[in-house]
Design brief:
mainly alpha; 2 helices; flat
Length: 59
């Protein structure tokens, strides 16, 4: 391909995405409670994907 450039990393900036935590203690302290389990939510997402996979357009 003929790429003849030097790759320089900017070490003053964070590398990759920031760490994300799924801590809902603040929401719980406000009285919020989930209405379905994580397992049920994953199951629903899987079935939605199976139904919509042929459309090839995701939004």
């Amino acid at each position: 391909m003929g790429f003849k450039r030097e790759i320089v990393f900017n070490t003053s900036k964070p590398e990759g995405t920031m760490r994300k935590l799924n801590d809902v203690s603040n929401l719980n302290s406000l009285g919020w409670r989930p209405t379905i389990t994580l397992k049920e939510d994953v199951k629903r997402a899987y079935h939605w994907y199976k139904r919509n996979a042929d459309e090839r357009t995701y939004s």
